Amino acid sequence: MRASTQLVCLLLLGLICSPAAASHWFRIPPHEEVARVARFIVHQCDWASLATISTHKPVVGQPFSNAFSISDGIQGLSSGVPYLYLTEMEISVQDLKVNPNASLSMTLAQTDYCRQQGFDPQSPLCARVILSGSVLPVNGSEARFAKQALFTRHLEMIDWPSGHGWFFAKFNITQVWILDYFGGIKTVSLDKYFHASPYRKYL
Ligand SMILES: *[C@@H]1O[C@H](CO)[C@@H](O)[C@H](O)[C@H]1NC(C)=O
Ligand SMILES: *[C@@H]1O[C@H](CO)[C@@H](O)[C@H](O)[C@H]1NC(C)=O
Ligand SMILES: *[C@@H]1O[C@H](CO)[C@@H](O)[C@H](O)[C@H]1NC(C)=O
What we know:
It is found in: Secreted. The chain is of the alpha+beta class. It contains 6 helices and 7 strands.
């Protein structure tokens, strides 16, 4: 084994074994690899802000932003598709019944990253992603994937009251917007987004 390989192995072990680093052991990809950064943010964040078009008085027809737990896959296994666990008793889900079009945003300000780096949440260096699309219920094998993705990262969901009509849904992305550096917001094609890996290649 070469010395450099040994070093990488030691580093990996250290990262895996350190509880504090366990949830952050994948480092952010280089900022110019925007598709990878977008996938990284979506995978790291456990929740997102979901904006719907409100159907509720007195703000009918106006944007309405609300926090939701999300997961695009169990830790370390990212699909790029944010899954949600919803009930029609929820105010934003009632909006989605009338108009499923929505926007979902996530920022590394939700992780320790921006604070540790000293980046203000509004700094372009505190990377964030804004997804446009719609929220669609999922069923069959995709619902099974969503359940595993969500329940492993949001343990209390298992005990949420069964009478509330919970169902699995996905955010069906039509446009990816990413701000991860100076020079303004960028877009990433869906093809590039879904083919990118959020993880740094160590070996
Ligand atoms: C949702 O967005 C799509 C694409 O932008 C648009 O064609 C559709 O009319 C919108 N649906 C509603 C209910 O506004
Ligand atoms: C899943 O839902 C889609 C539409 O949302 C429907 O066409 C399909 O038949 C459903 N599949 C199952 C297994 O229920
Ligand atoms: C889901 O997103 C795809 C793009 O990825 C789009 O072509 C499709 O129309 C969307 N489906 C719905 C029901 O909005």
